[in-house]
Design goal:
The protein has 102 residues and is an alpha+beta fold. It has helices at residues 11-24, 67-78, 89-100; strands spanning 28-31, 43-47, 51-57, 83-86.
């Protein structure tokens, strides 16, 4: 099989894999949106015992956080809430190991 070197993965591909992993661990992943405000993480994930995690998905190395996203992540950090920035499959694995497997 020949590899298509011009193929560029889009953020939706990464997000689809992320949601599949989250759901495989028995968690629920929902799209997140703020009405009237920018900067919301892409996904909120709910798990057993009332646990939750926020994830912002970016397309590999080229995906960059916008200023509203950086500001929102900083505001959450002040409250002790981590927002995971997921750019690669390795990031998904790290998320699963630290958040979903507990």
């Amino acid at each position: 099989m020949a590899w298509d070197w011009d193929y560029k993965e889009v953020e939706a591909d990464l997000e689809t894999r992320f949601v599949r992993v989250v759901e495989a661990y028995g968690w629920v992943a929902r799209k997140l949106r703020y009405d009237g405000r920018n900067g919301a993480a892409d996904r909120i994930c709910y798990g057993p015992g009332g646990r939750f995690a926020l994830a912002e998905l970016k397309n590999g190395g080229s995906g960059r956080l916008s200023k509203p996203q950086r500001d929102e992540i900083a505001e959450m950090a002040k409250l002790g809430i981590k927002v995971w920035v997921i750019k690669t499959n390795l990031d998904i694995e790290a998320f699963a190991a630290e958040v979903l497997k507990r």
